[in-house]
Amino acid sequence: MNFDRKMKLASMALLFLLTLPVPALVQAATFGHTGKASQVGRTIRITALDIRFDKIRLHVRAGETIRFIVTNKGQLTHEFIIGDAREQAEHEQEMKKKAGMGMPDEPNGITLKPGQTKTLIWTFGLEGEVEFACHVPGHYAAGMVGKIFVGANTK
C-alpha cells in the first residue's frame, strides 16, 4: 500500500473517531461498557435495602464481565448505577432536577421498584475505582453507595 493511500485511510479513521461524542469515548475507555451475556464470567447478587446496599465493596478484574442480579427488598424505589466519580456526580445532579419523576433503565444502571429484581451485565474497563450507587433523591447523600475495585488480577 502506498503512502498516500495509508494517509487517506488514517485520515478517514480519525474523522470517524472525531464524530463520536468525547464522553462516550472516555467512559468506555475508563470504567467499562454494557456486557454481553455470552461473556459473563461470574454473577454477583446485590440486595438494595432502604438507604443501603447489602454489599459495599466488590473486587473485579479489568475486562471482566459481571452479571449483577439486584433485588430491591426495601420499601422505596432504588437505583443501581455503575460509574466513575464523574458519572455518579452527573447522575446525582440529573436526579435532583427530575425529583420524583423516576428514570428509565440506562446502559450502566437500573431502577427497581420495591420487591423487584433486575439484571445488569457490565464489562469493566481500566484498573481503578468505580462506584455503584442509588441516586433516588437523598439516598446517595445518605450513603447508599459502594465501591468496585477494578484490578489486573483481582478475584
TrEMBL record:
Keywords: Copper, Metal-binding, Signal
The name this protein goes by in its record: Cupredoxin domain protein
Domain of life where this protein originates: Bacteria
Annotated transmembrane regions: none
Short name of any one Pfam family annotated for the protein: Copper-bind
InterPro entries from the UniProt entry: BlueCu_1, Cu-binding_ET, Cupredoxin
Recorded GO MF terms: copper ion binding; electron transfer activity
Annotated signal peptide: 1-28
SUPFAM superfamilies per the UniProt record, alphabetical: Cupredoxins (SSF49503)
All copies of domain Blue (type 1) copper, residue ranges: 47-150
PANTHER family, per database record: AURACYANIN-B (PTHR38439), COPPER-RESISTANT CUPROPROTEIN COPI (PTHR38439:SF3)
Gene3D superfamilies: Cupredoxins - blue copper proteins
